[in-house]
Amino acid sequence: EKGGYDTFMEKEIHDQPQAVADTLLGRTDESGALVLDELRISEEQLRAVDKIIVVACGTAAYAGMVAKYAIEHWARLPVEVALAHEFRYADPVVDERTLVVSISQSGETMDTLMAVKHANEMGALTVSICNTHGSTIPRESDAVLYTHAGPEIAVASTKAFLAQITAAYILGLYLAQLRGGSYAEGAQAVMRDLHEIPGKIEELLTRMDRVVEMANFMADTRSVLFLGRNVGFPVAMEGALKLKELAYIHAEGFAAGELKHGPIALIDAGQPVFVIVPAPDTPHELHKKVVSNIQEIRARGARTLVIAHDGDEDVVPFASEVIRIPQCPPLLAPLLAVVPLQVFALHLSTAKGLDVDQPRNLAKSVTVE
Ligand code: BG6
After folding, report:
1. Least packed by Cβ within 10 Å: which of 98, 180, 272, 334?
2. What does pTM read for this prediction?
3. Sign of the dihedral defined by the CA atoms of residues 98, 99, 105, 107, in that order
4. Cα 81 to ligand 1 centroid, rounded to whole Å
């Protein structure tokens, strides 16, 4: 049942091309327009939406943070991301024009369920992005958009994360199409780009030898930092979460722009720092800005473990290691950039002799508040 792999997590990392491909399946008609029949909310109601709030926990919340950048850009709707347990008790501003999107692999996380119930009581429209048919959260929601990642057994989420980003992107593109803004036509081109992602993950998974070696060398590491910007910021958070969950190492993700406002004080000789570099064509020169962050921390002795696109030579002079990901449009990069971080955490956990699939103190779905 582990498909020839040693652990469920390793299998699930390799399931990712299929998880993304299956989640994309059947979302467009012959003309290439998005169709979301399963959504069961009228187009009129969806057109009236003036705000989105994503509620989720853990990895699912990071998928929501990634989606915020894309949905705001495409659909021109404000998107907030709330940790489900904070949302419920924070007196959130919600009405019938608010679309509350919950994201949950299991569909049973109590914190997320309570947030959805609260949103329902306040009259919001609720959509569940969920991987488990017939689970509680979709049942309690007005509508559901299933991710088709297949069963995820390892406690630490991998393929569900990629499928959640994919589904949230489909929702964002659908809203863009429906609202008919300047991005309505762009939606089809993004769908085409998304369809190329599974092949690129496949290719990326063949390049992981050096990442495995790095993890094996680093079994004694006590702290690892992660920096990212724009959609790379939640990827940094997710990379850190994977290390905490799997290898019990102190790990923190930061927004790269925040470095000079505090975290740079943490940098001393030998401190390992993963940096998720934006695609070179990311607007507002974010690529250049992150490259200078790498330069700054390298000058202070950091070991810079740089995740950069193929062909990006600007990072080379400041990188202790360069991990290459295939080229793709800037907003789709999280679907690739997170993969080496998953593989790194898996192998560091293995190198420490830990139980990859069942980390201590964690459960696959937490059904208490
Ligand atoms: C945590 C799990 O308890 O719940 C995480 O350890 C997961 O891996 C989070 O991301 C949310 O779970 P779900 O099922 O709601 O996506």
Report:
1. 180
2. 0.97
3. positive
4. 16
